[in-house]
Description:
Elements: H1 3-48, E1 51-52, E2 61-62, H2 66-73, H3 75-106, H4 113-120, H5 122-125, H6 128-138, H7 145-153, H8 166-194, H9 198-206, H10 211-222, H11 224-239, H12 243-248, H13 260-269, H14 274-302
Antiparallel strand pairs: 1-2
Amino acid sequence: xxxxxxxxxxxxxxxxxxxxxxxxxxxxxxxxxxxxxxxxxxxxxxxxxxxxxxxxxxxxxxxxxxxxxxxxxxxxxxxxxxxxxxxxxxxxxxxxxxxxxxxxxxxxxxxxxxxxxxxxxxxxxxxxxxxxxxxxxxxxxxxxxxxxxxxxxxxxxxxxxxxxxxxxxxxxxxxxxxxxxxxxxxxxxxxxxxxxxxxxxxxxxxxxxxxxxxxxxxxxxxxxxxxxxxxxxxxxxxxxxxxxxxxxxxxxxxxxxxxxxxxxxxxxxxxxxxxxxxxxxxxxxxxxxxxxxxxxxxxxxxxxx
Length: 305
């Protein structure tokens, strides 16, 4: 080994050590914020979930897994799990299908394409509470737009109080959240379609594929990684959904639209049962962690080696 190389190695080591220190210093504020905003509250919630802690108890009383047993024994709490499953599956599936269909439409070349793409993002940029109040007005039983249209067309004979029935309320919040999320899904799919090489489509047409064949054998296989990411992100977002549901129905009528997010809020800030609310939150976090793990795994697999 030459003298120059021997002298260069320590300098290179010092440079790499200095770069690591700079990187750690730059990441430290984010790490502190993550610890204070995410890790500490979650750890505190896990601890409180093992205690009976309400306004009736002057101090938390250790109760073991009693709060978690209530989650599987009380029918009212089981309803929240069922409602969450229905809401997440229905909203994610509907948003997926409509987002893909709309992306295929706006990906075509036609006059006014850019204007339509920009207008398609409008529901996404609106605040979620504005979307909730807008759909609450559309579905209003007295002066709602939907009733006005259906009465004019003769589909119904009298106004329907859509949000006052259990099935109507759940369908209403699903529609509102779908309308809010379709633009984002459309943007993901449109980005995937823009990366599809035109020569693959031309080759499929030369082989005799019509539009349905091109969609099935070329477009959809190309969009498979995007589909996985969209489905997982959609499920995670819908599992965390609170504001649209609460602004439209507040979890009612009765408990028809009470999901886990609504249940946590209700137990913590209306019933002041902190222990039970933390137990629900812990299991809620574990539920969200499943699609998050799938998303991260798909993301790392898609990266080039």
